[in-house]
Amino acid sequence: MSSKVTIHEVARMSGVSIKTVSRVLNREPNVKNDTRTRVQEAVAALNYRPNISARSLAGSKAYLIGVFFDNPSPAYVTDVQLGAIARCREEGYHLIVEPLDSTGDVAAQVEPMLHTLRMDGVILTPPVCDNVAVLDVLEAEGVPYVRLSPDQDLDRSAHVRMDDVRAAYEMTAHLISLGHTDIGFIKGHPEHGASHLRYEGYVAAMKEHGHAVREEHVEQGWFSFRSGFEAAERLLERADRPTAIFASNDDMALGVMAVANRLRLEVPQTLSVAGFDDTPGAKVVWPQLTTVRQPIQAMAAAAADLLLNGAIRAEGDAPPSRLLDFELVLRESTGPVPPTA
């Protein structure tokens, strides 16, 4: 039935003009509440589905929101998609997800997409969100954008983030409360702003509790399982290995647990392991991973909401932003420091 229903039938049932139906469907302002309700009830009763191509041709909107990403964690990208899609569908928009290669000419990658797809706005994930070339192109083309977890120039645009410094501080403090003083740390991708913020939180907690940050217990990772595995090999094959390792994301923490298993180090009896993000892998591994729950889906939904509501600011005002809460999720991969440590 939905394929045969036209906007004319919706207008007749609701007792309004076709133009008014179109305004309601496009979420335009200045429509009386009772009129909007009548149109929405007619749409539901007739199971009417507007054609997105026809809508974009009839007006200036394409009803498309883009997500640009360059992130080695599939779980992170999936959560961003799920959060953004849910919010976009509420407003009748579609989501387009496009990978970028931040090591290449990003401007040359972005410009053709903007010209071809006519996106109404873009959500930028780390590290793309801090790539000046991408921001410059979007602004030159007049395309609104919202950044997820930016680290630089926060006053430049609308953004959504959480307090990575505080989250990493609290996780490190939890490990310290279990008696750990030699806590290894695996940094995230050096081009991601959150990597530096999480390391900052780790350092602050160690120093505030009177423990030295040992350079040999800090390793560089890249937010991938492989990089976490390799960093853990370097940390755990040392004679003075740490009694706990805090990895900057779950993928790397899972790499740590794989190395611990290979070396026959029991988790958490011999080694405690903590991660960051609370991705699905944190719950399917055994023992289940202690981690920081980053509200990735909620952050993406908030970014889409800012775009759909204009993401604009009056001259002289700070750009709109949202700060979402995190949560420590304490599971079985962390425990008291071993008695012989």
UniProtKB/TrEMBL annotation:
Positions in coiled-coil regions: none
Top-rank taxon: Bacteria
Principal EC category: isomerase
Residues covered by the HTH lacI-type domain: 5-59
SUPFAM superfamilies (alphabetical): lambda repressor-like DNA-binding domains, Periplasmic binding protein-like I
Enzyme Commission number(s): 5.1.1.1
Single GO MF annotation: alanine racemase activity
InterPro entries: HTH_LacI, LacI/GalR-like_sensor, Lambda_DNA-bd_dom_sf, Peripla_BP_I
Keyword set, alphabetical order: DNA-binding, Isomerase, Transcription, Transcription regulation
Protein name, as recorded: Transcriptional regulator, LacI family
